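FW: tagging you since you asked about this chain on Friday. Here's the raw sequence from the shared folder, copied in full. Didn't touch anything.
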Amino acid sequence: MQRFSPKALMLMTCLFLILSCDEKDMLSEQEKSALFATPSTAETDSIFAQWKQRDLTPRDYTVIQESTILDGKYTFKMLSFKINGIKEYGALLIPKTDVSVPVRLLIGGFGLDITTNSVNLSLDSSDPSGPYILAIPALRGQSLAITLNGTLYSSPLSEGVHCDAFDGATDDAIAFLNLVQQTESKADVNRSSIRGGSRGGTVALLAGIRDPRIKRVVDVVGPTDLLTLTSLHENDPTYLCQFLNDLKNKQATLAETRNKLIASSPLYFAQHLPLTQLHMGLKDKNVPVDQAYGLEQKMTQLGLKSLFQLYTYDKTHADIATDNPELAKRIAEFLAQL
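HL: got it, structure written out here
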């Protein structure tokens, strides 16, 4: 057994205290208890009512770029609009058609230092799922960089707070669907679906919960319970930016912060989900698969298991869609049924 001198033990103790101080939580135990407690029905009902009262009418619609693709078979539009005074951007890929077609929303992820939503699309006329309008909002604090058949189309940076990445970003997604309904006569918005990865997956779930026009949701490695995840990672810069910095800087009250955390957590509103498909990585350290198991359990408890599909893969957060034809096939078949 190795023995240490009193002086060595004292130095080790001091070092431990220094390291501990570096990781000191910003919240007291009392604050944590109040902030991260399981939401009550009254709280979730209040938030759901608040959602319905929001004005998500898009205004000042402008097409800033328009191109035809594949000899006129598709039209690509980059556009801008305002929601509650915030100027945002988005893209539409519209097939040439004489009939109404469904809308597919595609929602991007989040990174503290990543303000560009990059999308690479390969387009031909042989898509077996039939025609649909592809709608890609930039979301607040983001720009778009869409590479379509090798050609890059980009937008300016949307206004708004980049770290308002869930509840606020869901407003953006719903507002963009409102814009499609207002401006595209062939869009059957009551056959809308929404797909997102990581943060985008959570926004997809939240939009499906809030908007009855959305009939199918696909979440790829997206969190379902940000309340719990934030409680486990309160010193992480991403969670600080998204939820806790305003509380820390006295720009938001504890009650307002809790409201935002709950409103960003689809788990607590699962009874409102339409048909939903989750894809999760068993090796994902960013969004552990327990996030999906929790939602699966909630849907089962609600008697809604028939609306819920969960698929897991021996993958990480970053590579779940890499060399994964099974995932691509499941999503394509799921969305083609609209």
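FW: Residues 57-225+265-336 form a domain with the Rossmann fold fold (CATH 3.40.50.1820).
HL: agreed, and The chain is about 35% helix and 25% strand.
FW: great, closing this out.
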